[in-house]
Amino acid sequence: MKIVLEHLTKQFPARGRKSRESVTAVDNFNFEIPDGQLIGLLGPSGCGKSTTLNMICGLEKPTDGRILFGEEDVTNLPPENRGVGMVFQNYALYPHLTVKQNILFPLQNLKGKDKLSKDEMDRRVQNAAQLVQITELMDRRPSELSGGQQQRVAIARALVKMPRVLLLDEPLSNLDARLRLQTREEIRKIQHATKITTVFVTHDQEEAMSISDMIVVMKSGVVQQIGRPQDVYDSPVNLFVARFLGTPPINVFEGEIRGQKLYIGENAILDAPGISDQQVFAGIRPEGFVLDKNGPLCCQLGGVEVMGRDISVVSSHAASQAPVIRSIISSESSIDLSSKTIRFAVKPNKIFLFGRETEER
Ligand code: ADP
Known about the structure:
- The protein has eight helices and 20 strands.
- It has 361 residues and is α+β, with helices and mostly antiparallel strands.
- Strands 6-7-8-3-9-10 form a six-stranded mixed sheet, with helices on both faces. The protein has a five-stranded antiparallel sheet with strand order 13-12-11-14-20.
- The longest helix is centred in the middle third of the chain and has 18 residues.
């Protein structure tokens, strides 16, 4: 089921007495989510992710714009008539019901022509439980389960109605790091198996990048960029997106274009054909630095951190916005730690230039 968002906009009235201005939580969001894909909705807290999800599921009504599932306009349908499955951060299981009863619950409430026979309900519950691998936990209550198991029950409960669309709002936030990794792999597998069009909200860029077919990066209610994770990482449209994706984060320098070359400090770092003379921000990914004793970028050496296969070199430079520059290089490289400086060349495909006027710092 494809999902079409057309000029989707949500304004909330001003809260409190001081402010009279309304909040534009989502501003003219346009996107056609292809059938069967998993989309990661990504951005810092307050950027409008949950509001977008709540409009898709019907918990919030848009101020403007439309939502279509396939060709059907669902903008004014109540949540229960949209055929969506929703999973929240806090699982929201019924504590007094067993796992089996929790999963069964949405089916018992079906009315009229949607009503199912007892056999069909049992079959669906069993299928959903198998999909998320909790068949051996069916008689337990939520308090007898780990966080990861509870979240799997919540996913089974969302899947049991065989929804047209699956919506997940920060589903991994309450899990510890190991379970988070494991559960995100499971969500990916379940999505592959069911091919349900899925929207996954997270503020964690690594999480979104690792499981999404496409990511949508939002800031202050406005979509910044939509694309395949690797494409967005490799071609960020602005400094905000460049900074938001990647661990360690991108290193940002104040630079200048002169005579079609990029200067950081005194030295020309790389050719910048076709770009007019101007002040720029130059973002260099940590993996974009190459150790080169004749390299044009000369930094003050701070130290090194061994990270298994790679080394993280910590250095600094007067033109860097952050106090430290982090570069990742192969652990086979030898670094003279007694030296005060370290020189790098830069991989052209790992450096991004952004105009100063249009970009915030
Ligand atoms: P996110 O999920 O990315 O953290 P939200 O969608 O929850 O962001 O919120 C987007 C913006 O809308 C924020 O500025 C938030 O304060 C505001 N907002 C969300 N819900 C309401 C509401 N019910 N009333 C007023 N403002 C709201």
